[in-house]
Amino acid sequence: MRVTWTTEGDAMRLDFRLDAEDSITGFCADGQPLKMATNSCRVELPRVPREVHPDLRALAAWTVVAPWTRRTVTFDGPISPGLAAALAEGWGVEAGPVGGTPRSGDRLAVSYSGGADSVAVAAMLPDAPFVHFQRVSHPRVPNRWTHYRADVLARLAEKTGRELTVVRSDLEFTLAEPRPGYPEHHAVAAGALLLADELDLGGLAFGYELGSRWLGGDRYLLRYTPDNPMWAPHGAWGRAFAAAGVHIVLPVGGVSEAVTMRLALNSSLREQVRWCLRGVDGPCGTCGKCLYKELIQAAVERRPLRTAVGPKRPVARKWQEPPPYGGQEMIEYGCARVPGVEGTVFGRAAGFLGATEASTAWLDRCYPPAVEEIPEPWRKQVHDFMAAEVGFMSRDEARRVESWGTAQGSR
Ligand SMILES: [Zn+2]
């Protein structure tokens, strides 16, 4: 794989060329097969920095091309030996040219999507600037996803009043299958990486919560994942980001989506929270994401489910089948708390799961190892917030995390 960044006005354009052994079908770090649609993309920045450290250019490119790279990657400037080592150890690729010096920075920014998880992060870090990724169309790829209202999300981000950088990019259209999206989850950070020297970034905070970090997320059902390759500090991506002087920071990595929902709804950014990618004047209320988040919000607010979605709708079909489910811990949490859940689209799931308030109480507190893995400069702030606003899991509750997916953990 050979990658080149060129400046085009206020944008940086990435071109990548496959080597003979590379393939247009590859795998994301979470195992998802990905097919490439096209070999270039652009990242529009509010201002193009005069110089971007070669490690930042290289890592930003790597978030796009990693799935399709087999043995070697050649960047357009000399990377530091530390980044080359991280790519060799994490992916088994030979990366070069090598010869640059490492970089570092001091500030922590929030990779801000506007969803409940990232609003919770924003509430914990009131002084941190936001970097928001906005999807735009690609000149060579037809956009069949016009219902995806990235413009609405960007406007909501502007209404937060926080220091904000909006990065507009078509990089999701480098992906043909399964659908346009980030080639690696970390591609959302491509713009933040290119601006990291300008913003003096030493860390980037993401809204990945307990389920994504420790319970396998959507893709690894029911599995305790301390060595998560995407988000563990000692995982391949964690080491690559650290080598480029931008540490991955997961301020809400120890708490469930029930806690992030509560923090978001109680925060001053409540009016700007939006997890739905479809609605214009508000969430659409009918997509799968809206249905899932409504269950969590209803549980947090201790009220009946408000939805027009019936059990025969495609988005509700999986809840009519037996578990396991992606995000099952939150389905258990919701089913245990929403009044009258038996009569809703989650009624059958509630019956299968048999969860109770007691069996899901651990999801109201913070898993202590998630705070211990926060890089030192920001650990105390996160720890103190969790101690004051959430509270920590007991040893027995922490064992629920660590036995998730085993017979003991699922009941
Ligand atoms: Zn929706």
Question: In what order do the strands lie side by side in the largest sheet?
Answer: 1-2-5-10-9-8-12-13
Main pleated sheet: 8 strands, mixed
Q: Bound small molecules, which ones? A: zinc ion
Give the tally of structural domains.
Answer: 2
- Low-pLDDT parts are none
Please compute the radius of gyration using only Cα atoms: 21 Å
| Ends apart, CA distance between termini | 47 Å
- Mean model confidence by pLDDT: 94
Order of helices and strands: EEEEEHEHEEHEHEEHEHHEHHHHHHH
Total helical elements: 14
**Structural class by helix and strand composition:** alpha/beta
Q: How much strand?
A: 15-25%
Helix content: 25-40%
Task: Give me the count of strands.
Answer: 13
**Outline type:** globular
Q: What does the model show?
A:
InterPro entries: DUF6395. With 411 residues, this protein is an alpha/beta fold. The protein folds into two domains: 2-249, no CATH class; 257-353, no CATH class. 31% of the residues lie in helices and 16% in strands. The chain contains 14 helices and 13 strands. The chain has helices spanning 54-65, 81-91, 116-124, 150-158, 190-194, 210-214, 236-243, 257-265, 288-301, 328-337, 347-353, 368-372, 376-389, 395-402, and strands at residues 2-8, 11-17, 25-27, 33-36, 40-44, 72-79, 94-98, 107-111, 130-135, 164-169, 175-177, 201-205, 247-249. The protein has an eight-stranded mixed β-sheet with strand order 1-2-5-10-9-8-12-13, sandwiched between helices. A hairpin with a 2-residue loop joins strand 1 (2-8) and strand 2 (11-17). Helix 2 packs antiparallel against helix 7, helix 9 crosses helix 10 (328-337) and helix 10 (328-337) packs across helix 11 (347-353). The chain is globular, with a radius of gyration of 21 Å. The N and C termini lie far apart (47 Å). The structure holds zinc ion (ZN). Zinc ion binds next to helix 9. Residues 276, 278-279, 283-284, 287, 289-290 line the site of zinc ion (ZN).
